[in-house]
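Morning, I've got a small favour to ask if you have a moment. It would help a lot if you went through both lines with me. Thanks so much in advance, here it is.

***
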Amino acid sequence: MTDRRADSPHDRATGAARGDGIIAAARQAKGRGPAPVHLWNPPYCGEMDLEIRADGRWIHEGSPIGRPEMVRLFASVLKREGDRFFLVTPVEKLGIRVQDAPFLAVDADIGADEIRFVTNVGDTVVAGPENAIRVEDRDGAPRPYVHVRGGLDALIDRKTFYRLVEAATQDGAGRLVLRSHGASFALEG
């Protein structure tokens, strides 16, 4: 992986131009939800110094992005390919780093047969066959996730996970299970 940080004023201007395309594409999608990134296969243009931390913070060039609107704009053009994450437009693709999942599920409305999550970037996702809830064991601790879109997951925050555990019922094998839109999701192995 190449780190293409801009060093000279010319390089910084070129880097800004690359980022401007990402920002323009994201702004066009504003209010309409995520851009159709699954339809775009632009050439790889290098790495952007952007990291999404496990706690949901988006860090650009070592500083947190303080404007939630900017985070939402970038999130709308986020794409996953294998284990890599990119910000994409129809004409460019910039690699970024993601520590865990790109989003956090920060709240959930838990109904009889529907669990509706809200993410830290304002997405709403209903758990079901296409948006599964899963729990992974990482270093002996459960890490709960819900699929959001296009291979992008949200880590379910602690308070929301505790609420899910309280709402779960036991299945025939004694496991805690949630149900949403006709699908069942085990909260334990």
User: Anything to note?
Assistant: Residues 10-98 form a domain with the duf1285 like fold fold (CATH 3.10.540.10).
